[in-house]
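Figure 6 in text form: structure in, sequence out.
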């Protein structure tokens, strides 16, 4: 006999956890299903553990830069201790997630669900019926088509390596490849990134990406462009990657060629849920356009950028709407995005090309900030800023940064875009000095 619920949530990460808890606390009968680590990608195998590793890479690189000046001696690094430290942050996440859901009265299931009708899912041979469903299953590495792709490891396995191989190749020039390459290089690995065309990180400003490539090369990372992976083969203890007509040798090959919504096994056609490559097609309330009993959020929804803060926001929106508050999605124009490399690359708002395509009357303020005080005092040689300003309103339309604290400074530009601040209003406050925030007055 099928078990009945008011709501079934598929996925327990940022977009799913709070929906399940809030609805259960409101008196609903709620079930939560996860086919991976409870707590989602970000907390278990994504942004949280990655940032722990990046923090150590930043410290190692800062030591290297001061060592160049003769100020400090070169520090030794210990990859195994770093991974052990990282595990402190993630090892309790699944159990704590389950406990939080259970305490809120949510019934939890582990396994791979699939729809068997518009209001039923099957999990581990059991049928569950519900009035509403929320799809928050996140994303997974895109399936690669070349021969030998099964020999690659994914980023989650990389984050848990007990030993760091001497030679590593990352396939694809996206967030994952650049971030993990910068970590591996700072801990002594010889690293190569193979990217299929001449434009890695295409959602970021091209001048910022060029600066990042220069910083990557200075760290010893080889960035090979127009190098499409064609074949991966094992030769003894080594892997041979054929890309762009050349052969590359490595001890480990890592999949960094993008992620797609993890919805392909849900049998969405049976549930009358329309979807596309970016995920479930939803309206402004994150409700399926084809089945009003289904909601979707985070990386599983074809709406908003695939970022952890957006997933958490989607969870709030879906919970509000299920509980009758009718909350709409926001304008994502002030949502920042960061590549956590060393130094970090960040953007918010429009690219220069996007502003021009819209026919906007703009001015572009570009600065090489590697000679500014904050970069020079840390011996950072790759840093720049580009700010796009509307000539008619004098408001910031977009900002693109690479350098010290870019991941934090970009939030100030995001606030400026959200609040509609003019250049004069940005420059008006007295900022603490000397700080990177004070430099913003000169970036605009």
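Output sequence:
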């Amino acid at each position: 006999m099928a078990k009945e619920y008011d709501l079934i949530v598929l996925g327990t990460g940022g977009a799913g956890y709070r929906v399940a808890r809030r609805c259960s606390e409101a008196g609903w009968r709620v079930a939560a299903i996860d086919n991976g680590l409870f707590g989602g990608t970000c907390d278990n195998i994504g942004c949280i553990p990655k940032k722990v590793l990046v923090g150590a890479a930043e410290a190692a690189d800062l030591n290297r830069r001061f060592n160049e000046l003769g100020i400090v001696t070169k520090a030794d690094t210990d990859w195994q201790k770093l991974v052990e430290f990282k595990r402190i942050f993630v090892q309790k996440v699944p159990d704590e997630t389950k406990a939080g859901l259970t305490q809120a009265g949510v019934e939890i299931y582990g396994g791979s669900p699939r729809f068997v009708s518009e209001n039923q899912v099957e999990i581990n041979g059991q049928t569950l019926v519900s009035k509403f469903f929320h799809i928050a299953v996140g994303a997974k590495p895109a399936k690669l088509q070349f021969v030998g792709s099964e020999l690659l490891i994914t980023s989650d396995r990389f984050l848990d390596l007990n030993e760091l191989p001497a030679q590593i190749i990352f396939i694809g020039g996206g967030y994952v490849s650049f971030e993990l390459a910068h970590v591996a290089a700072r801990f002594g690995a010889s690293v190569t990134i193979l990217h299929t065309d001449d434009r890695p990180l295409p959602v970021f400003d091209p001048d910022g990406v060029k600066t990042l490539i220069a910083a990557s090369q200075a760290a010893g990372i080889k960035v090979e462009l127009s190098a499409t992976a064609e074949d991966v083969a094992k030769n003894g203890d080594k892997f041979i990657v054929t890309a762009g007509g050349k052969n590359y040798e490595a001890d480990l090959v890592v999949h960094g060629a993008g992620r797609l919504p993890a919805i392909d096994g849900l049998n969405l056609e049976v549930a009358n849920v329309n979807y596309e490559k970016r995920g479930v097609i939803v309206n402004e309330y994150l409700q399926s356009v084809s089945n009003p009993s289904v909601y979707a959020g985070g990386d599983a929804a074809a709406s908003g950028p695939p970022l952890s803060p957006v997933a958490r926001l989607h969870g709030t929106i879906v919970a509000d709407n299920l509980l009758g508050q009718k909350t709409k999605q926001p304008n994502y124009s002030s949502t920042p995005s960061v590549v956590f490399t060393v130094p970090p690359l960040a953007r918010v708002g429009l690219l220069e090309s996007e502003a021009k395509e819209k026919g906007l009357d703009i001015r572009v303020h570009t600065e090489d900030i590697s000679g500014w005080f904050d970069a020079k005092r840390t011996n950072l040689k790759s840093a720049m800023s580009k700010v796009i300003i509307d000539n008619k309103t004098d408001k910031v339309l977009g900002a693109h940064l690479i350098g010290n604290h870019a991941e934090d400074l970009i939030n100030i530009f995001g606030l400026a875009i959200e609040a509609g601040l003019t250049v004069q209003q940005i420059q008006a406050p007295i900022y603490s000095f000397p700080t990177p925030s004070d430099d913003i007055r000169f970036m605009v």
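Caption detail: The longest helix spans residues 47-68.
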